[in-house]
Amino acid sequence: MKTRENIARKIVFVILCILAIAWIYPVFMILINSLKGETFISTSSVFQLPNAKSFTGLNNYTNALSSKGFAAAFGYSLIITLTSDVLILVGTSMCAWYITRVNNFLSKLCYALFVFSMVVPFQMLMFTLSSTADRLDLDTPFNICIIYLGFGAGLAVFMFTGFMKSIPLEIEEAAMIDGCNPIQTFFQIVLPILKPTLISVAILETMWLWNDYLLPYLVLDRKKYMTIPILIQYFRGSYGHVEMGPMMACIMMTVLPIIIMYICLQKYIIKGVIAGAVKG
How far apart are CA 175 and CA 168, in angstroms? Predict the structure, then answer.
């Protein structure tokens, strides 16, 4: 039995290593090509490591930073991601708390609608959404978070509700006996307990918000506002010239914040803080 278990573990380890390489390889290719000259990126040497002839140092990165409005696009993407993330996390966690603790027809209907929203294709709504955003002045990086709240609420409510059901009700009852009102109970007792799920949802939503292309492209005025994904498209100019070097550097600088965020927060995803909260 031990021999079979060891063989199975080795097989699983090999499979996971292959999957890890498959996921890391595209990022590695972008990294090495961001350090090459454009002529070496568009030829067969695209798969080769930089050498003395093809290596350009950080020229592609400086060109990407100094042209095409990278700083503005990065700022707009950061504003959209942060505001939308905070709004989704706070709004949906409160909604999930209501759905879990108030067991009536309205709460069940709300939960069903949130779950149903996850299966509605964005393409069914995008044209109506674009005109509605124009009429309601939601076509700026500072207001588009309202739209993202609607699209991100389904998954977040689903995850928060599942975790909320495992929180003992005695914790909240004890807080109310000590004089906490519902708002204080939620922010001082429930929200800290939700920390693992909060971080998990934050990572998923941040990856979606940061990399989203279609919604900002349809809603925002591209003459005034560009996000990072939209900016990357414009490195492929309309005059037939493709700036592959700066494009690769821009993609790499876009990927790095998400990778750093995941590395810093990954330990919290599997960390349970509810264990031992109620001692019996």
Answer: 12
Tell me how far apart the alpha carbons of residues 199 and 159 are, in angstroms, rounded to a whole number: 11
pTM attached to this predicted model: 0.81
Instruction: Show me where the domains of the chain are located.
Output: 2-57, 67-234
Quickly tell me which residue has 């809603």 as its tokens.
219
Task: Specify the CATH number for 67-234; select among 3.40.50.1000, 3.50.50.60, 1.10.3720.10, 1.10.357.160.
Answer: 1.10.3720.10
Which pLDDT tens digit goes with each residue over 160-204? 888 888 888 888 888 888 888 888 888 888 888 888 888 888 888
Q: Does residue 147 contact residue 138 with C-beta atoms inside 8 Å?
A: yes
Q: How many CA atoms lie within 13 A of 164 on its CB side?
A: 23
pLDDT digits (tens, 9 = 90+) for 234-268: 776 555 566 778 888 888 888 888 888 877 877 76
Distance of CA 128 to the CA centre of its chain: 25
Question: Do residues 175 and 185 lie in contact, with contact meaning Cβ atoms separated by under 8 Å?
Answer: yes
CA angle 13, 15, 18 (to 5 degrees): 110
Alpha helix segments (H runs only) across 136-181: 145-164, 169-177
Helix (H) or strand (E) holding 126: helix 126-135
Q: Find the farthest-apart pair of alpha carbons in the chain and give their distance in angstroms, rounded.
A: 73
